[in-house]
User: Fold Peptidase M15C domain-containing protein from Streptomyces pseudovenezuelae.
Amino acid sequence: MPLSSPHPPRRRVLRTGLGLTAAASLATFVTPSPASASARAAEEGPRAHPTSANGWPMEPQADASGGIWTRQVPGSSVSVALRIGEAATVLVHVIRRYHYEIDSLVHGEVIGFRPADSALKGYATNHASGTAVAIRPTWYPDGAKGGLFPHQLAAVRDILKECQDVVAWGGDFRRPNESHFQIDVPPSDPRLRRLAARIRRWEDSPGQGAGTLTLGA
Assistant:
């Protein structure tokens, strides 16, 4: 069951005070921490091919023939457009754990693919390759920290630990964006394949994966 609080969370105060929209939140982009794949890509300068900051091919529109399709997040009303294959497997798992362990999500609260255009810069270009999601971007204003309660932050840290550096969280960027999660390795990285394979095994095994509890844990 998702954790909840009887009091309005601080992120709602931030949302109300700043009155941001999802588009506004995603329109302001900054450089992530130097340790991330996005920062390394930015330091390499312009690429010969249209790839996002994490090294994945960008797409002009959501189309399965081009590599982008819409996935339903199991156990929720959320659907999100993502890169077909390992990237979608991992990001859907992240969203699903968020839904179960941090707060319940509903349709429209998660933004995945966005078409490549001049408005996308820096790590936000990862949306154009279908390898990033923004979870409730209006709740977590760009540049602000402290939108999560301690138990929610602990859950995020556990998700990141489970993903073993394959996924990066915008809350760790130099200018934080606590709504942002991205695949932080290029398509050829074997860690992505291993993580996706492990998640698929969990999905096939009762009592494993997102939303399960271990007695005595």
In short: The mean pLDDT is 81. The radius of gyration is 16 Å. The first helix runs from residue 10 to 18. Residues 10-204 form one domain.
